[in-house]
Amino acid sequence: MVNRINIFSAVKLLFIALAFASTISYGQEVQPNQQKFARLLRLIDSYYVDSTNIGKLTEDAIVKVLSELDPHSVYIPEKDVIKKSEGLKGNFEGIGISFNIFKDTLMVVSTIPGGPSEKVGLHAGDRIITVDNKNIAGIGLKNSDVFKMLKGKKGTLVELEVKRKNNPELLGFKIIRDKIPIHSLDASYMIDETTGYIRLNKFSATTAEEFNTAIAELKQKKLENLIFDLRNNGGGFLRAAIKIADQFLDAGKMIVYTNGLKQPRRDYFSSPRGNFKKGKLIVLINEGSASASEIVSGAIQDWDRGLIIGRRSFGKGLVQQPFFLPDGSMVRLTTAHYYTPCGRCIQKPFENGLKNYREDYMKRVQHGEMFNQDSINFDESQKFMTLKNKRVVYGGGGIMPDIFVPMDTSSYYRYFNKLRRNNIINTFTTEYVDKNRESITKKFSNFKKFKNKFEVTDKMIDKLVAMGEKEGIEKDEESIGHTIRFIRKEIKALIARNLYTRSEFFQILNVDDDCISKALEVIKKQGEYDRLLAGG
């Protein structure tokens, strides 16, 4: 017994010694270079011919060093740390409004339900004229100015004066700032009697809770099939992705594993918990789906749990860990690769530099990959098999969908996109709702009536075109003729967002969406879903 204890103690001491030796080895390499850089900064500060900003030089060096490592290791200055983390934390502290700077005036588009502004009676359409007795109308206000004025610590007071339509006097409001939720779930609704739709814009600290609530509500409406939209979802927390994948997979299935030179392999498995482990599942992805989106779609594809529809995902298979620096700034340092259950590393190559990496989207367009599946070249050395049905899948750069849906190539979209890029469509709809809010809500007392009965008229299109011409966008009759239904749909969707929520916005925008139409076709066609999952 004593010998066993001695052996155990010896082994334990050996591991400690090895770990210590490893630390010393890394330290021996870092320490002289650390001294070298500190010496350089002292020399510059003491002897350089002109004045210098040592802080900026240090930050520039940090940015340069990280950019040489990989495209996703980044430096975040102290002043930006809170702002960068708010979206993933799932909340910020402020007054709880969605706003638009309209004709150089801050206009309330909507108040967040249950938030401080709604509680004191601020309304959609209100113009905020002063903040803490300071005029903000007609001064060239920017979004960043609004955030500085209205965001602040929970419990602090902000005083507003507001111009309300049909009210000659300015209205005064005293608002106590509070925590305001930032939702990662854009939309959740039933497309038909048995098929639900959920769209996520990121994977944040609140994503799993939001998803659970949405699924529970859809199940009350007889949910049997789910279309899960991760298009243009750039990712977020690894833990959130694991929790979402856990909703779909039977217990004991590997979701993802991570591995790095200085980070030992770690495996993550599904649990018995989960709200949609049975039922037809289709995940939508595209070139903007990255990181956590790829973890979820990769796990679902590898276990043959559902079908992936869309276009090849971004290809980010690197895990970042945040580390604070002494001045409160932060680096997000890549510490590991992540791998799908069948062993795929889906990180696309970055050996040719940051510029080449960032131009990948345009290269996909130029090579025809966005428009034709046959233009995609697979690396045969990265061939893998799904774990249940043994279908062929590939690693080496993104998740390739089971069903490819091309991007629309129509040149007639150029005029439509000009109106979009110059914010003409959004400005037009904001102005339209501002002038007609009361009459619209009176005529269409709920969203269902609005969706079924509201029409974007030719007169509205004429006004939109005229607004574009004022901004130098020449009318293109041929383009309008080919894209008119898309223009009408976008106007209607934006009006819905102004009157209701983002979920209603997507309910309008998703009508006749190519990927969603394909998903519904696969779900409804007898045997098609099972045939494709089996490798047909």
Write out the CATH superfamily name of the largest domain: 2-enoyl-CoA Hydratase, Chain A, domain 1
The DSSP helix count reads 18
Distance between the termini: 61 Å
Instruction: Give a count of the beta strands, DSSP E runs of length 2 or more.
Output: 21
The global form is: globular
CATH fold title of the largest domain: 2-enoyl-CoA Hydratase, Chain A, domain 1
Uncertain segments of ≥5 residues (pLDDT<50)? 1-25
Helicity level: 40-55%
- Number of domain units: 4
- In terms of structural class, how would the helical and strand content be classed? alpha+beta
What would CATH call the architecture of the largest domain?
Alpha-Beta Complex
Question: For the residues shown, what is the average pLDDT?
Answer: 89
CATH class of the largest domain: Alpha Beta
Strand content: 15-25%
Largest sheet: 6 strands, antiparallel
Evaluate the radius of gyration.
27 Å
What would your notes on this structure say?
This protein is of the alpha+beta class. The protein folds into 4 domains: 68 residues, no CATH class; 93 residues, PDZ domain (Pdz3 Domain); 230 residues, 2-enoyl-CoA Hydratase, Chain A, domain 1, CATH 3.90.226; 88 residues. The protein is built from 18 helices and 21 strands. Strands 3, 4, 5, 6, 7 and 8 form a 6-stranded antiparallel β-sheet that branches. It has a 6-stranded mixed β-sheet with strand order 10-11-12-15-16-21, with helices on both faces. α7 packs parallel to α8, α12 packs across α15 and α15 packs antiparallel against α16. It is globular.
